[in-house]
Amino acid sequence: MKKDLPTVLVTGGAGFIGSAVCRHLVSTGAYRVVNLDKLTYAGNLSSLRDLDGHPNYAFYKADICDTDKVSEILAAEKVGRIMHLAAESHVDRSIDGPMAFVTTNVVGTASLLSAALAHWRSLGFAEQESFRFHHVSTDEVFGDLPFDSGVFTEESPYKPSSPYSASKAASDHFVRAWHETYGMPVVLSNCSNNYGPYHFPEKLIPLVIANALDERQLPVYGKGANVRDWLFVEDHARALEAVMTRGQVGESYNIGGRAERTNLEVVETICALLDARRPRSNGKSHLDLIAYVTDRPGHDRRYAIDPTKSERELGWRPQETFETGLGRTVDWYLENGWWWRPIREQRFDGTRQGLVGAR
Q1: Which three-class secondary structure state does DSSP give residue 202?
Q2: What is the pLDDT of residue 327?
Q3: Taking the alpha carbons of 323, 264, 203, 332 in that order, is the dihedral positive or negative?
Q4: pLDDT for the residue 348
Q5: Rounded to the nearest 5 degrees, what angle is found at the Cα of 230, between the Cα atoms of 228 and 233?
Q6: Could you give the CA distance from residue 127 to residue 130 in angstroms, rounded to a whole number?
């Protein structure tokens, strides 16, 4: 790795958003990227195969709860910035087993903060001034909104509805506490629902694509009326770089795509794209595969992000509309079965009804 570039530690860099961040940062040629990931079920190094052997990229298999190991990596790699994305993130899994989310998202974040604080204190003055701890969070910490009004801003009160969102809310508070108590330079961001290439096949959009291609039912929670704001993952990666490099210390930034859609509209759009790109052998529409199932507990009605602050202060705007981004996503899944089919076959059978309509 080149030693003259600033080094960014990305936690959870083998996950969906984390791998997009790693690919983006390396592609700029402006950073050395150190990827730290525990490689749980959602971590997949094949998402990063294009970075294998790259001089500005290194990978460590490690747990953010292991403070000693993290401290060792921070010192050895002379890390100047941390982008913290490692998290348990699936709402349904948090309902089934909440303590794993407390361990990773709360205890893990606090452990990482402890290692980061000691590392920051060991730096020289100039390095301390440029150091950033960027905590990447979610719009779900704000709870939900009425169907017909309101948006989340950086000043919205926290009101999490699920064990997942509660654990992320707690981690946000710990990050702010490290800044207020110890003076560590932090920035935070809260994003809307991401989608795009390399998305783990249990999430809404890739699950619908995969089920449709395999002629399986497309189960939709309730009536599919729940609304989410959608953000193409590569746009998010660009936004995260902007927050890390241009965000004001102690501030938070909401990152959204200005693309609200009901879950049913998302599924219907995917079906239309597949009808055009990969028609069914029986000549019917993929829409015929939609099946409505019982809603999940605590299912938030609507999320809507106001990204005005990020647009105004960081100069960031998404490059993809929902339509162009979803088209790119469907095309990627059609062309890259080598990536998602082994995951689906080995770790996930695609039949769990409670997944469509999830985050």
Answers
A1: coil
A2: 98
A3: negative
A4: 53
A5: 145
A6: 5
What is this structure's pTM?
0.94
Separation CA 359–CA 60 (nearest Å): 28
Strands 7-11 and 193-195: unpaired
* Residue 42 pLDDT: 85
* Alpha-helical segments (H) within 152-217: 163-182, 204-213
Q: Is the dihedral of CA 149, 153, 158, 164 positive or negative?
A: positive
Sign of CA dihedral 221, 260, 323, 89: negative
What span, in angstroms and rounded, lies between the C-alpha atoms of 9 and 11? 6
Residues pairing with 302 in the sheet: 227
What tokens appear for 317 in the block? 């705007």
Token reading at 190: 């809260």
Q: Which residue has the tokens 């507990």?
A: 297
- Element housing 82 (H / E): strand 81-84
Which residues of the chain carry a pLDDT beneath 50? 349-359
Q: CA quadruple 86, 90, 93, 95: dihedral positive or negative?
A: positive
Residue 261 confidence (pLDDT): 97
Task: Name the β-bridge partners of 228.
Answer: 261
Tally: H helices and E strands in the chain: 13, 12
Q: Under 8 Å CB-to-CB from 325, ≥6 apart: which residues? A: 195, 196, 230, 232, 235, 257
Q: Which residues are catalytic?
A: 139-140, 164
* pLDDT, tens digit, 9 for 90 and up, residues 15-42: 999 999 999 999 999 999 999 999 998 8
Domains by residue range for the chain, with CATH: 7-195+231-255 (3.40.50.720), 204-228+260-302+320-355 (3.90.25.10)
254-275 tens-digit pLDDT: 999 999 999 999 999 999 999 9
Q: What single DSSP character describes residue 123?
A: S
Q: How many angstroms separate the CA atoms of 323 and 317, rounded?
A: 16
The distance of Cα 132 from the centroid of its chain, to the nearest Å, equals 19
Give start and end residues of each alpha helix (H) in 189-262. 204-213, 233-246
